[in-house]
Amino acid sequence: MNKKTFGLREMIILAILLLSCYTIWPSIQIHSKFGEEKKTFLKENPKLAAKSINFGLDLAGGTSITLEIDKTGLKDDDISDIQQQSLEIVRNRVDQYGLSEPQIAPSGNSRIIVELAGVDDSTAKELVGSTAKLEFKILAEAEKFSQVVTLIDNYLSRQTTDAAEEKAVASKDSTAVSDTTAAVAPAAEVAVSDEDLLKGIAPTTATTKAADSVKDTTNKVIATNIPDATPLSSYYLSFGNGGFIGQDNIEKVKQILALETVQKLIPRDVVFAWGSGLEKISKDSNIKAKRFYLLKRRAEMNGEDISDARPYRVGDGTNAGEVAVSLKFSGVGPKKFSAVTAANVGKQMAIVLDDQVISAPVIRDRIPNGEAQITGLDDMAEANRLAVVLRAGALKAPMNIIESRN
After folding, report:
1. How open is the CA angle 390-100-34, to the nearest 5 degrees?
2. pLDDT digits over 307-363, tens only?
3. In angstroms, how far is CA 329 from the centroid of its own chain?
């Protein structure tokens, strides 16, 4: 009897353990990932996300912030829409940080409560309290992109060569060092090979001089800390209608672009920018990457020019059946938009929110009536999100932090 009872007990305990493992497995899969990888995994596995256990402030610690719309001069009918727009802005910012299961919810018709696990008070305030920035920028020409990338490539290659030579010299005895120092020739120019992803680009005298002008010993050391000191172009994936940086190389490229001397190599009229999330570079590929752009620094227009943005499904024409977002401009917006589109037919215009490109449609023709559409979206959910983000550019009420608790 005791043996039977003991055996039954074991079976019950084993069943409970197996059930527990099955229950927490979705949480283990999700919480073992971070940043963009976690964001993409959640998007691709919504059913798994629904089964995951959320780590709240009680388990992970963190900050709770209450935001309130400044209702000065607002009509009551506008407040609810502004609240929804602000919710989307906050969610976009938090998603960029890849935080663990943030809790973001409306409170009443004018407040938003944000709970961020594992985030200190100052970081949370900076994340959700800063001003949203919506801009429209034209992509730089392909030739300009190639020139800038080649300039950075040449600089990094020369720094790596010089660092390697100095290390070799230092390893010899003092006599050899003395003899070698006089014999060492200046580092030769390193051409971009035909195998580089940016094919057909060769260094020029102008780019070499520019690289020499910012060369210093400090960045020799920094350059050697970049994995294998690989030039920028080796991380660049050119596929279809755009350029990408693979998921595993995003941080490496950010390290390169953060170098002070590399920043000096980038012309003042352009700026590098990232896409808003990870995506597959093609339907047949499993490679996940983030879009990588070179934009003209000057914004052609900003969010203040948008009066409305609405999602819809195209009824006819070549894009029939696709989801899209319609844009409307007010005030001087239509005139400005007409001039911008007329001057840039055939080019891409990037829609930039908080310095990340959320869309970069091609300008097909001059648009004179103050209306436009953005196509090429995946589904109605994305169209809804994009419409809210674009309407957020027209916000007339700031969000004030009225309470913050750790």
Report:
1. 90
2. 888 899 988 877 788 888 888 988 899 999 999 999 999 999 998 877 888 888 888
3. 26
CA 349, 308, 269: angle at the middle one, nearest 5? 25
Q: What is the pTM of this model?
A: 0.56
Residue matched to tokens 């999700």: 30
CA distance 352 to 135: 5
Q: Given strand 301-302, what is the order of strands in its sheet?
A: 236-239, 242-246, 288-296, 270-280, 356-359, 349-353, 134-138, 301-302
Question: Residues 197, 238: contact at Cβ < 8 Å?
Answer: yes
CA distance 362 to 374: 9
Low-confidence ranges of the chain (pLDDT < 70): 1-6, 30-40, 42-43, 46, 48-61, 96-100, 126, 129-132, 160-230, 239-242, 376, 392-396
> Do 190 and 154 meet the contact criterion of CB atoms below 8 Å apart?
yes
Could you give the residue ranges of the DSSP H alpha helices within 171-191? 174-183
Q: To which H or E segment does residue 399 belong?
A: strand 399-405
Q: Return d(Cα 183, Cα 185) in angstroms, integer.
A: 6
Q: Which residue has the tokens 């429209």?
A: 136
Q: Regarding beta strands 301-302 and 62-69, do their DSSP bridges make them parallel or antiparallel, or are they unpaired?
A: unpaired
Is the alpha carbon torsion for 329, 330, 333, 337 positive or negative?
A: positive
| pLDDT score for 290 | 93
List the one residue out of 134, 136, 139, 143 whose CA is nearest residue 339.
136
